[in-house]
Amino acid sequence: MKPYETMFVLKPDLEEEQINSLIERSSQVITTQGGTIDNVDRWGKRRLAYEVEGFHEGYYVIIRFQGGPALASELDRTFRITDEVVRHVILRADNVSPRAPERRDEPRLPEPRLPEPRLPEPRATEPGAVEPKAGEPRAMELRPAEPRIIEPRPAETRVIEPRAVKSEVVVPETTEQVPEPPVEEPK
Asked: Which of 81, 108, 124, 132 has the maximal Cβ count within 10 Å?
């Protein structure tokens, strides 16, 4: 028997007893097919990443179990014909750690700290200020922008000459009828 993990998302408007019966039904499919259940983890209602079948959230359940490929295909068939299951996935968990994925209610690592912004150096007129040596960068000083007068460009003038157009219409003088091509009938 190989280790498997299944995650399925149920409709969010189900009552608790309906959710329990669906989890029990999937557990029965696993045990009747000769598998063993290692862990059932109920994540509860979570927001979906995108809208699925008109729902923005769903009830998440993860079941870790041992079984064969026939068990995984039967569980997949059961999920597909169950209307209350919005999405499901079954994975072979050979390289998955035995620990459950981190939940949102568990403590997280602290956020990385950003470096503190540099304060501008004091000006030479302020007490305790030192004038920087030649070649050293100075702290950026903000000055009001100088007003600029923008003169409009003269408009470019182009003369467009009309093209000569022939207004003669040539009508063929023949009155002969042109034979129509033969039409093939479909067989």
From this structure: 132
- Which whole-number Å values give the CA distances from 124 to 95, 120, 128, 132, 139, in the listed order? 64, 12, 8, 9, 12
Q: Mind listing the domains of the chain with CATH numbers?
A: 2-92 (3.30.70.60)
Residue 127 has pLDDT above 70, yes or no: no
The three-class DSSP label of residue 19 is helix
Strands, E assignment, 24-72: 36-52, 55-67
Which DSSP helix (H) or strand (E) runs through 6? strand 2-10
Q: How far apart are CA 77 and CA 72, in angstroms?
A: 9
This prediction's pTM: 0.51
Total residues found in the chain within this entry: 187
Q: How far apart are CA 4 and CA 9, in angstroms?
A: 17
Question: Residue 59 forms beta bridges with which residues?
Answer: 10, 45
What is the rounded distance in angstroms from the CA atom of residue 6 to the CA atom of residue 22?
14
